[in-house]
Amino acid sequence: MSRTKEHKPLLEFKNISCVVKERPEPILHDISGTVYESEIAALMGPSGAGKTTLLHILARQEVFGTVTGTTTRHCEGFEIGFVSQQDIFEPFLTTKETMQLYAELMLPSYTTTEERTQKVANLLSELGLAEVADMYVGGNDFSGGAKTLSGGEKRRLSVGVTIVNDPQLIFLDEPTTGLDAGTAMEVMSILRVLTTKGCGIICSIHQPRYDIFREFDQCFFMADGVLVAAGHRVDLLNFYKEIFPHQPMREEDVADLFLDYLSTLNATSAAQVADKWFAFPTAHTRVKTPRDRSKRSFFAARADERPGFIRRTGLLIRFNGP
Questions:
Q1: What are the ABC transporter domain coordinates in residue numbering (predicted)?
Q2: What pLDDT is stored for residue 23 in this prediction?
Q3: Are 186 and 156 in contact (CB under 8 A)?
Q4: Which of 1, 49, 237, 246 has the most C-beta neighbours closer than 10 Å?
Q5: In this structure, are residues 7 and 284 in contact, taking their beta carbons and an 8 Å threshold?
């Protein structure tokens, strides 16, 4: 993706730390960064690096521990979506019924039945779910004997119900975990399409294949709660070459080699590498022009524009009734 176009920040975070009484060392150490519109940012690192904790803090999800630091959102709360690692749905609803339920719950009350129906149809088509629209979602509690959605289809449905109201900023926790290579790439392709509409995306991910890694516009490499390096993969490649000047290096290898290296670091050694990164002359500088928050999608609803309590309760009874 071209880096010449100016993309406006959607989320800025500064000096994020997290401590728990049970651990002598913080879970997160003084982490700062920016997520931009029309880009995919990835939080990467070995297990225990703190990437999921950071993602949940930035998404304002509940976390265990005391959090300090600041986050500044250049979009409204109703313009933000979160996709958890677990795909949790009512198993006896079909794909289409699930999308319809979320459309009824999340779209503004001023949208018509025809507009909601068309929105659902468009999303099912864009997500490649039109052919399984009448298939039960299924799950652990499903015992109907009918064919149900695959893991990849459920993950696409999770994305679908999140984007039904056209969010500007989306958080995803391990979006490719448990998926085969082809299905994982399908999910990433959907996310890339969302960026063409101006959406900013940030996800946590463990050890992606190169074809997925190259979809990331910005990578935050973490180790033991420390942000070791952050930037475009070309910058990170050049940085790794500086650390290990005599080691042959290709762009295809940088993610695996960097992650293997990070797994050997503790908080102290990670901070030492981070100092080298912050002194490294990166190739890409960013101009931060605030986004115009007055602009929003027709389908983005403030809390007071969504269906009221009685309407929502009726919808849940109707969709989950006998």
A1: 11-249
A2: 83
A3: yes
A4: 49
A5: no
Cα dist from 67 to 74, 204, 229, whole Å: 21, 19, 21
Task: Quickly count: other Cβ atoms within 10 Å of residue 112's Cβ.
Answer: 9
Which H or E element spans position 203? strand 200-205
List the one residue out of 67, 97, 61 whose CA is nearest residue 82.
61
Q: Per-residue pLDDT tens for 33-90?
A: 999 999 999 999 999 999 999 999 999 998 989 999 999 999 887 789 999 988 889 8
Orientation angle between helical segments 95-106 and 151-162, nearest 10 degrees: 20
Per domain, the residue ranges of the chain are: 1-38+49-75+206-291
Q: In what order do the strands lie in the sheet with 169-173?
A: 66-73, 9-19, 28-36, 226-231, 218-223, 40-44, 200-205, 169-173, 80-83
Q: Tell me the whole-structure pTM to 2 decimals.
A: 0.85
Band (291; pLDDT cuts 50, 70, 90): very low
Q: Answer for the pair 286, 36: CB distance below 8 angstroms, yes or no.
A: yes
Token pair of 88, please?
């949790």
CA–CA distances in Å: residue 286 to residues 238, 256, 279, 282: 18, 26, 16, 11
Residue range 100-115, pLDDT digits in tens: 999 998 898 889 999 9
CB 225 within 8 A of CB 267: yes
DSSP letter assigned to residue 148 = B
Closest to 282 measured CA to CA, from 214, 228, 229, 215? 229
Rounded to whole angstroms, what are the CA distances from 240 to 33, 244, 267? 20, 6, 19
What per-residue confidence (pLDDT) applies to 1?
Answer: 45
Decide if pLDDT at 274 tops 60: yes
Q: Give me the half-sphere count of Cα atoms (radius 13 Å) on the Cβ side of residue 6.
A: 7
